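Reminder to self: tokens first, then the designed residues, so the page reads top to bottom the way the pipeline ran.
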């Protein structure tokens, strides 16, 4: 598959590093690059930009038929709260902007610093929670995550992003506000 990552900051560059170790073609693009061409040629588009940039980006290209992975957490500029949540999510807002695409929420609970390592904590692979209304898109992203070294967790429909984004925000609070550092990640334990 061809994967276009829009956003070449810490998260976008980190994901590019991790995903380039798979069999897929990966390219990163800044907002000033030819986003339309990048999206046109991609099978999967990863929006690795702040949530507030999504509306501008989706106006630049036709996302019809594309799997669009939203990794954002819609935090306020001062990181003190979420811009939206509980009754909707950034992922659902983005889905409304690209009605012909298959929007998936994933990778939003992982600090960018993990992408330089082996994607493990205490010997266990980092989990990424994958939510989407389209089951094929959800399965594709779970497969991609597993190939990259994550433990994908099926989180059900896209509306689950209403819980995943606050989980990402909680991770940010632990990591930065409560000074636990970035060598942390949420993990859901399932009984055997």
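Designed residues (192 positions):
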């Amino acid at each position: 598959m061809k994967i276009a990552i829009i956003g070449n900051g810490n998260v976008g560059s980190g994901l590019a590093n991790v995903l380039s170790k798979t069999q897929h073609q990966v390219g990163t693009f800044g907002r000033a690059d030819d986003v339309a061409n990048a999206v046109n040629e991609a099978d999967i588009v990863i929006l690795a930009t702040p949530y507030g940039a999504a509306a501008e980006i989706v106006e630049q290209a036709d996302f019809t038929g594309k799997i669009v992975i939203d990794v954002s957490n819609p935090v306020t500029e001062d990181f003190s709260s979420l811009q939206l949540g509980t009754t909707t999510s950034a992922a659902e807002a983005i889905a409304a902007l690209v009605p012909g695409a298959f929007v998936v929420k994933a990778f939003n609970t992982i600090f960018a610093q993990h992408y330089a390592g082996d994607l493990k904590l205490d010997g266990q692979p980092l989990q990424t929670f994958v939510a989407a209304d389209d089951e094929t898109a959800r399965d594709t992203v779970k497969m991609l995550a597993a190939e990259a070294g994550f433990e994908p967790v099926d989180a059900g429909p896209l509306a689950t992003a209403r819980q995943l984004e606050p989980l990402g925000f909680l991770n940010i609070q632990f990591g930065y506000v409560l000074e636990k550092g970035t060598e942390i990640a949420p993990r859901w334990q399932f009984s055997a």
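The chain has one domain: 2-177.
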